[in-house]
Amino acid sequence: MTALEDPVVAVGEVEELAVDGLRWLTAIAREPVGGGLAWATRPSDDELDPTLYSGTAGIVPVLLEAWRHFGDDSYADTALRAARALADSLDGVDDDSLYFGRTGTALVLRAVHDELGDAAAGAAADRALGLVRSGFDGTRWGELFELMGGNAGIGLGALVAGDAELAVLALEPYLRTAEQTPAGVQWAHRPGINSRLHHISHGTLGIVLALARVGRAGGRADLLELALAGAADVVARDEAGPEGFLVLHSTPQYRPDVIEPISYGWCHGPAGDAQVFRLLRDITADPVWPALVDRCWHTVTHSGLPRRPRPGFWDNNGRCCGTAGVLALACDRITEQHDGDDFAHVLVADLAARAIRDIDGARWSNFEHRSAPGDLEPCTGWAMGNAGVVRELLRFVRLSRGGDPRYAFTWPDQPAVPARATVRLSGTDAMS
Fold this sequence. Notes:
About 50% of the residues lie in helices and about 5% in strands. A hairpin with a 4-residue loop joins strand 1 and strand 2. The two termini are about 20 Å apart.
């Protein structure tokens, strides 16, 4: 029986799956020179990965999530050991970005300080942000100029980590680098590239999210106005209205030989677009934004995912461009709109059906249709691996039991849901 034939998995079984995912993750941690705990992107990799995207920094949040969810201090102890390794890694990192560098590390170290009271983690977060500040050339930090690897992510991370001045410093260059379009503005995600990307990870909407959040926090109307102009450009590119919302990956298509023109996940599709529109909904009183959130949701739920009708359509279980990232939006919908529970069950059932489970625990293999064999080695981190999947499964379990819909650690590009208990998911009384 496949997950889609019966999209109901008992909540207790989902929680056991998450525990098995955590067990596999903690068992393959390594002890670097100097102590602490750290992870590589994949178990077979020789080099440790400290990043928020695919390494240790992205694993710490799920450890905090598990500590809060289960009340088991062993997860907190593991997070503290990982924070020690992250602090020791700072001087060896040659990147200052949110997802691939020191800003992401600073953000996670600050979370460990705030949640677990670890003074050393707080001091290391301050040091990391100081290193980030020293790498600014007055306009940017490196080649990338977007959310994952550039200014937008650095500004978001600095804001959440407590350095509002650095956040504004990172966002102001967008004021003078914006390119006018017929409907608004856009930006080049890196120099020398003709294509313009549109979505949250590397495109206009990721910059929009950072401009809006930092602009609101700093009382900068100019940043917020620029955010709205960027959003207007992307909205004008919609090809699925009036009920749906779907925008091409880029214009003209960037790397058409390897990148699909249409995606549905967090990184380049409506699952991530909706997170930006949620933020603009919360900042402004304009009814266009909640309507766009609904339109994104319509497109996601009518796309056919998580079915895999052809290679390249939907090949990933992870948080960045796979099923776990859509589950994050589904749980936001459950909390805010009191819908989405049926689709959340479908997504969870699919993740359960695709899990690799044995005596070592549980993990997930993604698929690469351009290589043979196509089944990839399971990954550890947030983007494509266990950390991102388990984090969303634990939240689903809490929602199923009428618990707190908030994360222990809120990702800076996913607006927080209201601080209140949500309704119990439909059909869960018989599933506990």
